[in-house]
Write a structure and sequence with these properties.
By secondary structure, this protein is an alpha+beta fold. Helix content is 32%, strand content 23%. It has nine helices and 17 strands. The longest helix is centred in the last third of the chain and has 43 residues. 27% of the residues are buried.
Length: 438
């Protein structure tokens, strides 16, 4: 039964619980797991696509028997002809028409190499992608539940066995450098073998036929240094009895998280993501690894120390600037009070000092820069031949017009006054002059 879903996390990992070849529908059920960083499991559940929790990074995991594996020598061809080359190479190995299948190369695989190719039913896969797209959970990456350990996943020399429950049948799926194969541990009369049964030989090697209850065909002896045994906790006892081997517990949500950590991405060719989506996906993966991977812990501590030191330095500089500003303001206030004892209330020391000085100059008859005489003297000193015939003066602001010189000389006079410490401007043939603000 669906349950109340938690707030969004960084990664949502899905896998279908129905393994028939029928196309997916909005009511199809999926197992899901969520991780805040791609390393730790946060929550899990089972529900229809429309009830899935929302997330920007959605990974679809394909069950083992929905994918077949083929080791091929791929000829060197242009990227535009790569899909056609795969059709030709795999045509004799497949029971289906290659046009009905979706192919994907192993991570880092290039034309001219011998590499692994994954194949699955294209219509079946597209139906799941469409259902999730319609539900507002577009898939950003497609990964297999198991893959040949000679490519991707970081376990090139290992053999991995996984005992898992698939509806009415319990399977042991084995992956090693020779490929992937599933053998039934227990089967009911109504169970089906799913889409993989139509793919033909997967070039796995001889583990025997996948007959029901054929325990003689199950792997038993193994090298502990290179072999790992995992099982769903609900079927661990059955798997250990059938294989005479101890299995490590691996709940389905933990297995989904393991799959999402692989390097595989089956979204290739006509199902490939846009270049922008791939860049965003790689960026999210890089950020997630930097944020959570143990290997990046020293770098994270170093970055945190650097940011703390920068913040400390910035705060120290800001404190020093504030202290210097406060000292300057105190000095100006003290100078105002010492020079003009009558100024008891200090609001703006520089402005109050200028006004007090102007009052003293006015009282003593001394010219100040706000007087018309001082402005006319500055004009005469800058341009002795220039003289206006119209004058408008008010409180330190003079407008002089109807000059006896052409406009270029008037502009030169304006520049000379500005250089001498005045604020001069030419406005419609008139020269405006006033004291420059300090």
């Amino acid at each position: 039964m669906p349950r109340t879903l938690p707030p969004p996390h960084d990664v949502l990992i899905l896998t279908p619980t129905e393994f028939s070849t029928a196309a997916a529908s909005p009511t199809s059920v999926l197992d899901w797991a969520r991780s805040p960083n791609g390393q730790l499991l946060a929550d899990h559940g089972t529900c229809a696509a429309a009830l899935l929790p929302a997330d920007d990074d959605v990974v679809l995991v394909l069950p083992p028997r929905t994918v077949s594996w083929h080791r091929v020598a791929l000829p060197k061809v242009a990227a535009a002809r790569l899909r056609a080359a795969l059709d030709g190479v795999l045509e004799d190995r497949l029971l289906n028409d290659p046009a009905e299948l979706h192919f994907a190369l192993e991570p880092g695989g290039r034309p001219g190499q011998t590499l692994w190719v994954a194949a699955c039913h294209k219509a079946w896969l597209k139906s799941w992608l469409q259902v999730l797209e319609t539900a507002g959970r577009p898939v950003s990456r497609i990964v297999p539940a198991l893959w040949p350990t000679s490519a991707g996943g970081g376990d090139r020399s290992e053999t991995v066995h996984w005992a898992h429950d698939e509806g009415d049948c319990v399977w042991l799926t084995t992956a090693n450098p020779l490929g992937v194969r599933s053998v039934p541990l227990r089967e009911s009369s109504t169970s089906t073998f799913g889409p993989t049964s139509t793919f033909g030989d997967s070039s796995f090697g001889d583990l025997g036929p996948t007959a029901s209850g054929a325990t003689g065909h199950l792997p038993t002896a193994s090298d502990p240094a290179t072999t790992r045994w995992f099982a769903d906790p609900s079927i661990t006892a059955l798997a250990e009895h059938a294989c005479n081997q101890r299995f490590d517990l691996m709940p389905p949500p933990a297995w989904l998280l393991r799959c999402a950590q692989s390097d595989w991405n089956l979204a290739q060719f006509d199902l490939s993501l846009s270049s922008g989506a791939r860049r965003n996906q790689r960026l999210r993966q890089s950020l997630r690894q930097f944020r959570s991977a143990p290997a990046w812990r020293p770098a994270r501590w170093g970055l945190a120390a650097l940011l703390l030191s920068l913040m400390g330095g910035i705060n120290a500089m800001a404190w020093m600037e504030r202290s210097a500003m406060t000292a300057k303001q105190a000095a100006m206030t003290q100078a105002l009070r010492e020079t003009f004892p009558g100024e008891t209330l200090v609001m703006d020391a520089p402005l109050q000092m200028r006004r007090a000085l102007a009052r003293l100059q006015q009282a003593s008859g001394t010219l100040s820069t706000s007087d018309l005489e001082a402005m006319l003297a500055a004009i005469a000193a800058a341009a002795p031949d220039a003289a206006p015939t119209a004058l408008d003066f008010s409180a330190g602001d003079a407008r002089l017009g109807a000059w006896n010189v052409p406009e270029p000389q008037l502009l030169a006079l304006q520049q000379a006054l500005n250089e001498r410490g005045w604020a001069a401007s030419v406005e419609g043939g008139s020269l405006r002059i006033r004291p420059k603000a300090p």
